[in-house]
Structures are given as C-alpha cells and as structure tokens.
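Researcher: Here's my situation. A collaborator sent me these components and asked whether they could plausibly form a single complex. I don't have experimental data yet, so a predicted model of the whole assembly would be a useful starting point for our discussion.
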Amino acid sequence: MPENFADRLLDAIRTKGSPTCVGIDPVYSRLPADIAEQKELNDESDSEVALDAVLEFCRRVVKIVAPHVPAVKINTAFFERYYWDGIDAYFDLIQEADKAGLIVIGDGKRGDIGLTAEMYARSALAEPDFANLDDLTGPDAVTVSSYFGLDGVKPFINVARDESKGVFVLVRTSNESAAQIQNAKLESGLTVSEHIAQQVEAWAKDFGLVGANGYSLVGAVVAPTDREEIMRLRGMMQHCIFLVPGYGAQGGTAQDIAPCFKSDGTGALITASRSVIYAYEDMKYLERWPSEWDKCIEQACKDFATEVNSVVLTKSE
Amino acid sequence: MPENFADRLLDAIRTKGSPTCVGIDPVYSRLPADIAEQKELNDESDSEVALDAVLEFCRRVVKIVAPHVPAVKINTAFFERYYWDGIDAYFDLIQEADKAGLIVIGDGKRGDIGLTAEMYARSALAEPDFANLDDLTGPDAVTVSSYFGLDGVKPFINVARDESKGVFVLVRTSNESAAQIQNAKLESGLTVSEHIAQQVEAWAKDFGLVGANGYSLVGAVVAPTDREEIMRLRGMMQHCIFLVPGYGAQGGTAQDIAPCFKSDGTGALITASRSVIYAYEDMKYLERWPSEWDKCIEQACKDFATEVNSVVLTKSE
C-alpha cells in the first residue's frame, strides 16, 4: 500500500474504475420502512433506538456501495445529533467501511488554533494513542476549516503525514450565501476562495507531502459552482485532489463537475450523498424495485459512477 | 430570567461583577498531582481512566470559579480527544456548570451548510428532543464558523432564538497565520474579518434578536489583536457582544482587551483559560500555596477578574 494518501486514493479510484464517493448523511425520518418499522428500532423519541436504526441502515449502505466506489464520506453532524452514542456509532461505521476496503473520509470541517487544533487533529485523524482503543481505526482523511490560516491546518497535516492520511481544506462551498464571504473580491483581484486556494496549494506542495502521482495529501473541498470559477481553482491548485460535494441532491450535474478534473481525468473525487443513499425515494428506482431499497441504492450508485465516468472519459480522450 | 441570551449574559455579568469567562481546555499531563496520582485515575494510556481524571479536575475547576465569574467556555476539542466517552464527559461538565449557576459556552466552532448545519445546531445548542435524554441540558451558547455565510449560521440562530440561547460567530482569531486569511484586503477597503464583521452585525440586528440591553443573541469571537483593528471591529458590530479569547496564556493583556468594550464598559466577555486553570504551575501562586492547587486557581481567577475590571472601570469613568 502506498504511504502517501493521494497515491492510496488514486490507486483505489483505479481499482474501482471511478473517481466517486458516497456521502453518508443519515436521517431517521428517511430510513427505509423495513428498518424503521422493526419493532426494536421503531422509536424516534429514544436516541439509542433511533441511532441503532440509523447505524443499521448505514452499515448496509456501506456494504452495498463498496464494490462500486473507492470511498465514502461520513458526515459527522448526522452522528453528533445523537450525542456521545452517535460518536460511538460514527466510529463503528468507520470500522465497517474500512473492513469493506473503502477509503473513509470523516467530514467534520473542524478548525481551531494551536493546541486545540492538535487535539482535533488527533481525535479526528490519528489512530488512538490509548491502549484500550488499540483496535480502533480512524478515518483515512478529514475535512478541515481554512479560516485560521496555516496554523489551524498544520496540526492536521502533521498527523496526516505521520499516519499516511489526508486532509481536505475547505475552499469553496456550494450554498448560496457562501458567495457573501467566499466570492468577496480582494485588492489582488482574487476572490477570498481563490486567495485561500493559493495558500492551500502552497501548503500542499511545501512540506514534502506530494506522492508519486503528483498529488499532495493536502486536498481541497471545492463545490461545483460556476464553470469559470472552478477552472480557475483547478489551475491554482495543481497538487490538490478536489473533494467535490453537491452532486445530485444539491443540484450538481455531470457537466458541472467536469472542470474539477485535469485534462488527464485525475484530480477530483466526486461525492453524491442523498441522491444515492435515498434512491428508494426516487420514482426512477422505486418503480423498478418497489420493495427492495438496497437494489435502488445499488443501481443509483452504479448510475452515479457511470455518469461521472462519462465526463472523465470525454475529458481525457 | 430574561428570554434573550444577551440580556441573560449581561445580568450574569452584573451579578458576578465582572465580564469574565474561564476557558476549560484540560490536558491530562498538566493535571494536579493529587488527581493524576490517585491510583484509579493514574493511567494516561487508558482513555477511560485518563478521562475520569480530566473530568474530576474540570468539575472541581467549575466549582472553584463559579462564585467569581459569570461564565465558562468549554473547549470541545479537549473532550473529543477521548472519543465518545469524551463527549459524554463534555455534557456531564455542562450539567455541573449549569447547576453551579454558570452560563456555559460550548466552544466547538462548528460550521457547515443546509441540513448538516441544522444537525450541528441541534446537537450543539438545542435541548435534546429525545425522551430518554429529557434531563440533559445543552450549553447556553456556542461558537460557530462564518465561512459559509448566512446559511451556515442561520440554523444556529434559529435554534438559539427558539431556546433563549446564543451564538458567537468567528470573526478574528489570535493565531499568527490567521492574518494570511483574515487580514487580506478587499477591494472595498475592508479586510476579510471586517467584511465578515459587517455581515455578522447585519445578521445580529436583523431577525428580531436584540434584547433589552441593545445586544443581540448573535455575538462575535474577536481576539485582541491590534488596537486599531479591534476598535474598527467594535465600531462595526454595535449589536454584538464580543467573546474574547487569548487573555493570559495566549499573550493578551488588560490593555489589549480595552478596545473590545464600548465606552459604557459593556460589550465584551473576556476569556482566560490556561492562565487560570493551570495557575498552580505559576510561581506567583505556587509559592504561596505549594500544595493547594485549588487555592491557586481561585486566586488566579480573582486576579483575572480584578485586572479585567480595572480596564472596564477606567473606560467607563
């Protein structure tokens, strides 16, 4: 196994044949009926019961998607929702995804400074340094906030380098009001996002973090907003793999994500969350498999990979 | 009890006679010997044992400082360090601080968009909506990231408004490299921090969030950097209480924090963390109470309040 996270991720993408990632954002109210209606799992008002149902669903999703995608992105917020038991379940799911051979991205967008950032970096990314948690595996990579500048990110980079893991730094998000902050124009002519992109590229290539494929263990979270903007960001961050959210349910289409890739078809990992994990709510799949939610998810996952591949192949031809 | 968080906080400041807050950032290696050396708490390699020691210390700190300060700020990173059990301990400590009559600020700097932000807002700030956690109290306010613009903050504001709680939005941090991002100059002439400050003030005064004292439940995290910068930020955010980190161990002094207050002596809550909770490592206190760490903490807490008050009184004279 390569030591460098970017090399590991690229290997996994080659093996599965698609630069895709399934995002796991589970909510109890959308669980398939056959899980939510199981007697012992059917109580949304009890956090432990509801969480058991959520975890059961997520475990099954991981198994369904594992043959088709190289990675999953687990959204910590949906587990924090269930307090300490939720964090326990988040780690349970990481173990499950790891056993299924998936690269696991913990999407927590933590950020702080100094010793606080070190604490977050250790708990978010490091293998536990406690004897009683020896068997626990952490995620392969995490998302982090960029607002603190390098000192806020460096502790995560240090842990990532020491443990062959990765960091995706927040550069551009997909929400409408992000533009209020991220598209503000600087005197230099750059937007705030572009200014951060410049810094992230400098961090990515600076600390001997670049692997055999030319990518760094420091990547960037870049949502597919407008084409010109993404092309500029792609040009600015030559050493960064883009973790691209917003495909499917958040409105991103295959054409939107095309500029996230370099001309050789590398450089991005596209994430679809709700459009895959809740595919059994989509008439397109529901009509075909009215009572087999797992088949709906599997087909949606395959369709997602095919759509993304069509863009990558067109680009690299 | 007033409904508005800013009014509650100002009442608490008046009652305790000082706009101060003790930050709780516990690390096992700095625990007082008589806690770390207790047989059943003396094993840093076992996360549960180490956490029990950390929690025991924090509980005692809360009791020691409660008569002297209106608020404590609990840094979630230092609890996440211990995984799910750490989150359980974080909530235990909130209950303890709440019982001691303290306003509790959960310092997690969470941020995301859409439904993810709602999930964070509920778990970070709401009273639990699960029957089995009915007795659990959440923090009175939390810190949140600003990088997503309004949609990232609005879910926190909504929960805060509904539950008489508060939100402190990250505007300016104290670390050196923060300037790389936060001091970048915009075409408008503002820095990125100032631009965010303008937005935060707009959010703070906009949604009917302002209490009887003229402050909003939306406040701002503003570190005491340079005097001119803080005066500009103070001028721009008339409706925001500043949560001011960095006093003491991070290098902030009484003079540095003066511009965080308005001329009437209101408008800021000053936080000292390590300089208070580890006062027993400071020769100034250690010489006087070589084997009573609790007395060292109590005196450091009183000294901190006195120093901050000297600035506030000078200012409002």
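Model: Some features of this prediction you could bring to your collaborator: The longest helix of chain A spans residues 293-316. Chain A has a mean pLDDT of 94.
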